[in-house]
Amino acid sequence: MFSIIGAGIGGLTTALMFEKLNIPYQLYEKAKQPNAIGAGIWLAPNALKVLEFCGVLDAVFEAGNEVDRITLTNEKLEALADSSQIPAKKKYGFTTVAIHRARLQHVLVKALPKEKMIWNKGFSHYTKNESGLTIHFEDKSTHHTDFLIAADGINSKVRQQLFPESQIRYSGQTCWRGVSPNPLPEAFKHRGCELWGKGIRFGFSQLNDAETSWFAVKKAEGFGVDEPLTLKKELLELYKEFHDIPKELISETPIEAILRNDITDLKPLQNWFQDKVLLMGDAAHATTPNMGQGGAQAIEDAYYLGHYIKSNPEHAFSVFQNKRYKRVNNIVKQSWFTGKIAHFSTLASLRNFVFKQLPKALVDKNMHSVYQLKDL
Ligand SMILES: Cc1cc2nc3c(=O)[nH]c(=O)nc-3n(C[C@H](O)[C@H](O)[C@H](O)COP(=O)(O)OP(=O)(O)OC[C@H]3O[C@@H](n4cnc5c(N)ncnc54)[C@H](O)[C@@H]3O)c2cc1C
């Protein structure tokens, strides 16, 4: 029996894979019910391929919005790099999907048997015994298991017990996210745009016919707190040199729908498992969101893990780590680096000039190396 901790993107997809492959499991989540907070998230073709295998692709498309063009621009919405996703659609069968995080969670939960998910069960710690592991929950209950899969996110309690030396790194950037109750102008309906200014950036994409997700990022000290009464005014001031769309999105969004998070990742761990305990998703390799791949990599983890447990149960965890480690850590590194470039201030014009000259073939090659799911 496998016990999965965490009903986020990674834990739920793992449960779906286990259902599909007939692997016995039970999932435990500390939240009382499905309630993923947050705004929009992009699901790239590599993630969609796995969700197709799990049988939920149609529901994801129904709940989200296809993004068939991704454009990096300056603050006036003038393109620096424009990437049509149509070639990706031809190659993989789909483009990227923008979807509200809560709706994605809903789709995944709905596809799973209710009795396999136990809500309101916060993991506390585990102990080892001769026949396996005992999981201790915050409510003092216990459960015996053969294997423990930690999908409990960047602040993973399982990881803190397994590798207490692990370190979360602050990127020096803070991010506001929001969902505006309005669609974008028709020309932007299926576009994802990221606008790079001097030391700040802004991104948006439509989530469905009625909502648009956005994010705003600036360099800041960590753990900043906003004053709700003045936050919108401050954001509007920050983005005053930008095109009107960002300012409209900020203005339209109810203040309670604006969230703030410092952008962090996990310093790469040397190992993702020990004996019968495995870390996956953000618990193992949280990345900054600059490439929109953190959730996609958690989804990929689920895919490979399920297959390796099925094909090589004795060594599944080590095969999983060997297969995934290099790809995932390259994404973590590249994403960290992209975040640094995005926040150039004095060198912003030079950066924009260089990005405009980047050969399309190079941009596409990089995109496909991320979108292409590697063989098992
Ligand atoms: C601003 C921002 C934008 C992003 N945009 C994208 C994007 O566009 N595309 C993309 O692919 N990724 C994106 N990501 C990354 C993505 O959100 C994460 O990589 C993804 O959510 C990781 O999934 P996970 O299941 O590993 O962890 P999580 O989604 O964090 O889920 C962890 C789950 O474990 C539960 N849990 C925690 N502790 C316990 C406990 N003690 N006991 C039981 N349960 C517990 C939590 O309640 C939660 O449900 C973004 C991230 C951020 C911060």
From TrEMBL:
The keyword Oxidoreductase applies. SUPFAM superfamilies: FAD/NAD(P)-binding domain. The keyword Magnesium does not apply. Keywords: FAD, Flavoprotein, Oxidoreductase. Residues 4-307 form the FAD-binding domain. GO terms for molecular function: FAD binding; oxidoreductase activity. Its cofactor is FAD. This is Zeaxanthin epoxidase.
